[in-house]
Amino acid sequence: MAIAKIVGVETEFGIMLRGAAESNPIAASSLLINAYAGERARQAGASAGGPKVGWDFEDESPGNDARGGPPPGALPPEIETHLVNIVLTNGARYYVDHAHPELSTPECADARSIVRFDRAAEEILVASMAAAKRLLPDGQELVVYKNNSDRKGNSYGCHENYLMDRLVPFGRIVTHAMAHFITRQVFTGAGKVGTEAAGLTSEDVPFQLTQRADFFEEEVGLETTLKRPIVNTRDEPHADSQKYRRLHVICGDANLSETATFLKVGTTAIVLAMVEDDFLPRDFIFRAPVWCMRAVSYDRSLRLPLELADGATITALDVQWELLDRARKYADAGGLAVVGEEVGAAVLAEWEAVLTGLEADPMQLADRLDWVAKYRIIDAYRERHGLQWSDARLAAMDLQYHDLRPDKSLARRAGLRTLVSPDEVASAMTEPPTDTRAYFRGTCLQKWGDAIVAANWDSLVFDIGKDPLRRVPMMEPSRGTAAHVGMLLAECTTPAELLERLGS
Question: What's the mean pLDDT in 189-194?
């Protein structure tokens, strides 16, 4: 029986210091995050703590491989313990990672909650830019982009995480996840002018569906920055490792469209639930998965046949239609409680509507999908001015689509549909979700931040003035919710009282 698909998203943002002769991206990212943390602490008052709490690296193990051991020469991510790394009162992690500001959402129970907290992350970055500007000299400004490429051959990720049953064979996960990741690009892509793939130019690829496809070189592997694999094997569950695994997904784009984010996470959660319940009898095994990853991204017609290992061919759209059909049968057979019944039904409806639109005319989805919205804006400008796709002005417009400054962002002018209200987004900047363990983390930070010395996904470390420090484990992502500990947290007036009652 599939387990609840608790999910999270980690987004690395592009950053630029404008108005300065030179800029160090690590220093710029540190300034950005520290400016936000300092302002939040001043607004909340010293007793609220929260943003001052650092990350606990005690249980970090990015080198663990789901295949049992990394192959010779594998390069797992390094743990950069010396860089800025803070925990927010909404349960999120905000830190510097590989010269980028990165924000990881708190654990969420469904795709709609992910949309809400992903949007909150954007607004936290907007607030961070404003806070940093007040500290910088006149004429200087930190600008943040929610994109995936600097057009100099460097790509940075938007990673997804899905809680899965440890007992499911990893090979089965790879087979079905690979097919979904390759083909879901038709609705998850953020769009890109040109290509950064070796040997290709804008004449070969004027515009593609995704930002990330150019940068994937392996089918399966542990790396995230070099030799990127379509299916990542990092085995770091941040939960009870006897019961759970965390599927770490690195091949998706950073989306500005709420619909694209909703579908990216919602469809993947349903597919993975079907994998757990062995409800996918047909295996889509591509003859050349890496080639297919790029081919789907380069094919705006959405009609390119992809060769399967058995010699048959199928289009990306056809794979998605078959997955949707199977997902509907799965819902009819046992419901969608593992992804949230109401949210699951909404995912199925939106999935069908988007596939129908893509099949008829993708341009009718300019209010729902990033790549379509971006293409419509840029192609209209190109036609109006008689430009070639290689024109630098189009690449500049591509970047401007991802600019998080509200008055500069082309995405904000594209008329994209919204799924969550401004009030929901504003509250998610400081309040944790109530239906995962993030509630316990975030609420403790709000009430007793000064008594918490470190935090991570599966524990909090308290200092109540007595040796030794006290670690509170949180190994069950679905516990620590408002329903589970809300009354306890409300009744306790001190962290010492909380620890005493937890101990009893």
Answer: 98
Q: Which residues of 338-377 are buried (b: 16+ CB within 10 A; e: fewer)?
A: bbbeebbebbbebbeebbebbbeebeebbebbbbbbbbbb
Which segment of 38-52, 54-68, 408-422 scores lowest on mean pLDDT?
A: 38-52
- Are residues 439 and 417 both part of a single domain? no
Identify whether residues 246 and 292 lie together within a single domain.
Answer: yes
CA dist., res. 213 & res. 185, Å (int): 9
Place of tokens 């998080």: 404
Say if residue 115 is in the same domain as residue 137: yes
Residues in the chain: 504
Q: Which of 165, 181, 180 is nearest to 327 (CA)?
A: 180
- Give the Cα separation of 255 and 185 in Å (integer): 12
Residues 411-438 pLDDT 10s:
999 999 999 999 999 999 999 999 999 9
What does the pLDDT read at residue 48? 41
| 51 pLDDT above the threshold of 50 | no
- CB 394: neighbour CB atoms within 10 A? 21
Q: Structural domain of residue 491, as residue ranges?
A: 433-503
> Residue 1 domain-assigned?
no
Q: Which residues are catalytic?
A: 97
Residues 94 and 140 both lie in one domain: yes
Do 458 and 380 share a structural domain?
Answer: no
What phi, psi does 429 have (nearest 5°)? Answer: -70, -25
C-alpha distances out from residue 96 to 27, 55, 69, 189, 192, Å: 9, 12, 28, 25, 25
Rounded distance, CA 499 to CA 504, Å? Answer: 9
Give the model's pLDDT for residue 291: 98
- Looking at 395, 427, 459, the residue that finishes a domain is 427
SS3 167: coil
Within a domain: residue 116? Answer: yes
- Same-domain check for residues 417 and 446: no
Domain harbouring 136, CATH code: 3.30.590
Residue-wise pLDDT tens digits, 315-346: 999 999 999 999 999 999 999 999 999 999 99
